[in-house]
Design a protein that fits this description.
The complex is a heterodimer of chains A (376) and B (313).
Chain A: H1 2-18, H2 20-40, E1 48-54, H3 59-70, E2 74-79, H4 85-91, E3 97-101, H5 105-109, E4 118-121, H6 126-154, H7 177-208, H8 210-215, H9 221-251, H10 259-283, H11 287-304, H12 317-322, H13 327-341, H14 345-375
Helix pairs in contact in A: 1-9, 2-7, 2-9, 7-9, 7-10, 7-11, 7-13, 9-10, 10-11, 10-13, 10-14, 13-14
Chain B: E1 2-13, E2 16-27, E3 31-35, H1 42-49, E4 57-62, E5 65-66, H2 71-77, E6 78-82, H3 93-103, H4 108-121, H5 137-148, E7 155-159, H6 167-182, E8 186-190, H7 194-197, E9 202-207, E10 210-215, H8 217-223, E11 228-234, H9 237-246, E12 252-256, E13 259-264, H10 267-282, E14 286-292, H11 296-312
Parallel strand pairs in B: 3-8, 3-9, 6-7, 7-8
Antiparallel strand pairs in B: 1-2, 1-4, 4-5, 9-10, 11-13, 11-14, 12-13
Classes of the chains: A mainly alpha (376), B alpha/beta (313).
């Protein structure tokens, strides 16, 4: 049995070594994804382009603008002197927001009157728009507090604020979204490479007719699958190490928890993903179909339903149930727990159980499909 | 001694019966030809005998094991090679040998010994580092057969092994099959080429899932075809064929190149009749009429047409 498994594994490695295209896909694809997701997809909003229509032209308006631009959240890109230009600026995306200071702002400050500052925000990207809004609200609130205390100080009184919030973000104190994304990215890259590579490798045998020769040999399908999976598990682990190192070098992400636990759960996850690939290969008859089907079952769910980008908690209940169709969901939680929180098995053991159950269901399914193939 | 014993082997796909209660025996060391048109049930039968397809009913003993109950044991007893090229084109000759050797559980000395044998048989000594894709078709075929018997099985199944191979390579290939058979290996072969069927010790003909004839090539020619076959060379071949096939005294007509083969009960009576209907009644110019020894092709066409007619009735 070992001789046979070894023969299959060796053969697979040799074929892979000659298949330059597949090697590129296996090793270049993760780098592209890492760079794309690490740099391009960034949910942190910085350097918001801002145009000011300052009708007041006072010390206070300039001072307020300075407090905004001194952080790296807002960049001042210009001033306008005419209300009619606002529309043009937002239309051409010359700026994402326009602040309008009313003519008598400064005067009103010091005569205890309310002042309204108008902020016009480009609402096309709702996510960014709401972030701009909340940054602006915070900035205005703190600035108006400052003025209030100044005015009160002039009158010899002390400012009193009843409730003050001091938020403190654990695990990712600076709220850098790449910290959140890179573990997810590892999950996604691993599931795609595992499902695609194993399904292509099996379907290739079907397409070329070599599977017929293997069927009449004493090689059992279990031996063939084990022999085929070993090289791809090793490759997937290499890719994982590769992304972890790249994540550290490019984005400074470290693993807070146990590395052994990380690789142990990764093995379980790879096992589940490879099973998924095996099911795909038993449905598809050509490599083309296998490739499309395997990217479909690996990429889409791991991107949309795993909690990679969109939090599962905020999905409708029905969709939350559907998220269980991808093993990426379980491993995503485990990986973030280990990498970002540094917690141990106690925190996520039930996810491990889910992964095992998931793999067993897939194994059973592929056994049934295999059984059918022998009688028809 | 029989190395294959087939007993009422049947395979149904839904309501379609691909193989219908076939029974036959194959003796140890003989070359057994399994012939039939496409879709006659040849491949289905072979797949059942190799243990990769479960029979619907009946059974067969292959190398002493039941294909119904011990398909995994059967697989250790047989070698198999199909018309589809079964080697890995992206591996070298040696890597292919190593892989299949490993699949059949060979290692170290045994593997090295068999590797030498395979390379010798395939004329590839000293060329084991070549990519299999770069080999010519005939050599690939020999390599595939040699690898199919790398584990020295007692029985080897060849499913249309010479499809798409040039005549000289085919002849060489059959030399190899003969060598195997002489060393005691039972060779079970399907083919479309009737000249190849002549090389077989025993021939079995299958049509519509049933066996319709069996025996040696000589037996088939005499036993099933008591009629005389006249080869007629004449002008207006198509018209002549049409006219002859309508005559009551004609058993069978078929066209072979520019000649017509006419099957009749009696030779001299037949000659007279052919002359009459063609030359006298229809003024077709007859160049010659010869009595010929029937070829296997004549026999098969006769048997197949008879069986097809019977099935239609």
């Amino acid at each position: 049995m070992l001789t046979r498994i070894k023969a299959v594994a060796k053969k697979e490695v040799r074929q892979l070594k000659r298949d330059k295209r597949m090697l590129y896909v296996l090793f270049i694809f993760p780098i592209i994804l890492l760079v794309l997701f690490g740099y391009a997809i960034n949910f942190d909003v910085h350097h918001i382009k801002m145009v000011v229509y300052d009708q007041d032209k006072s010390f206070d308006s300039r001072n307020f603008i300075n407090t905004l631009t001194s952080s790296d959240y807002f960049d001042l890109v210009g001033y306008i002197n005419d209300e009619s230009k606002i529309r043009n600026i937002l239309d051409t995306k010359a700026a994402q927001c326009v602040i309008v200071f009313p003519r008598d702002m400064s005067k009103k400050f010091y005569s205890n009157q309310n002042v309204s500052i108008q902020v016009l925000i480009d609402g096309v990207d709702a996510n960014t728009a709401s972030l701009i809004n909340s940054y602006m609200t915070l900035a205005v609130a703190s600035y108006s507090q400052k003025i209030q205390s100044e005015i009160l100080a002039v009158e010899g009184q002390k400012a009193y604020i009843p409730i003050d919030i001091h938020p403190s973000f654990w695990f990712n104190p600076e709220l850098v979204s790449t910290f959140f994304l890179v573990p997810g990215l590892i999950v996604m890259i691993l599931i795609i490479t595992a499902v695609v590579s194993i399904s292509l490798s099996i379907v290739r045998e079907k397409e070329r007719g070599t599977v017929e020769q293997l069927n009449v040999s004493p090689l059992t399908s279990l031996e063939m699958l084990v022999g085929k999976t070993i090289p791809y598990v090793v490759i997937s682990l290499i890719i994982a190490v590769f992304i972890l190192v790249a994540g550290y070098i490019l984005f400074g992400i470290t693993i807070k928890g146990s590395i052994i636990l990380l690789f142990f759960s990764m093995l379980l996850f790879l096992f589940a993903s490879l099973n998924l690939g095996i099911i795909v290969s038993s449905i598809a008859d050509t490599q083309q179909v296998a490739f499309q089907l395997s990217t479909l079952v690996s990429m889409l769910p791991s991107m949309l339903l795993s909690g990679f980008v969109f939090p599962i908690e905020s999905m409708p209940k029905a969709i939350q149930v559907i998220t269980n169709i991808t093993p990426a969901k379980f491993f995503m939680i485990i990986l973030r727990d280990i990498m970002l929180k540094g917690v141990g098995l106690g925190a996520f053991w039930h996810q491990i159980v889910y992964l095992v159950i998931f793999s067993l269901i897939l194994l059973l399914l592929s056994a049934i499909i295999n059984k059918r193939a022998r009688t028809a | 001694m029989n190395s294959i014993e087939v007993n009422k082997l049947t395979k149904k796909f839904g309501s379609f019966t691909a193989v219908d209660e076939i029974s036959f025996n194959v003796r140890q060391g003989e070359i057994f030809g399994f012939l039939g048109a496409n879709g006659a049930g040849k491949s289905t039968a072979i797949r059942m005998l190799c243990g990769i397809l479960e029979p619907s009913a009946g059974d067969a003993m292959v190398g002493g094991f039941s294909v119904m109950n011990q398909p995994d044991k059967v697989k250790t007893q047989i070698g198999y090679m199909s018309q589809k090229f079964s080697l890995y084109n992206d591996l070298t000759v040696e890597e292919n040998i190593n892989f299949y050797g490993g699949v059949y559980g060979l290692y170290n000395n045994k593997l090295a010994e068999r590797k030498r044998w395979v390379l010798k048989v395939a004329y590839l000594e000293g060329k084991q580092k070549l990519l299999t894709a770069s080999l010519p078709g005939g050599i690939k075929q020999r390599l595939a057969l040699a690898i199919a018997v790398i584990h020295e099985p007692k029985i080897v199944f060849l499913d249309e092994p010479t499809g798409g191979v040039d005549p000289i390579s085919r002849r060489n290939f059959w030399d190899l099959i003969n060598e195997l058979s002489q060393s005691g290996v039972t060779v079970f072969v399907t083919t479309h080429y009737l000249d190849e069927a002549e090389f077989c010790n025993t021939i079995t003909l299958i049509n519509a899932g049933r066996i319709i004839a069996g025996g040696s090539s000589k037996e088939l020619k005499t036993k099933y075809l008591s009629n005389t076959i006249l080869e007629v060379e004449c002008s207006r071949v198509i018209d002549a064929l049409d006219i002859l096939s309508k005559e009551k005294w004609v058993e069978e007509t078929s066209i072979f190149g520019n000649y017509i083969h006419v099957s009749v009960k009696d030779e001299s009576e037949g000659r007279k009749q052919v002359n009459k209907v063609l030359a006298l009644d229809n003024s077709i110019n007859i160049k010659r009429i010869d009595k010929i020894v029937p070829t296997l092709e004549d026999v098969f066409i006769y048997l197949l047409e008879k069986d097809t007619k019977k099935n239609a009735d």
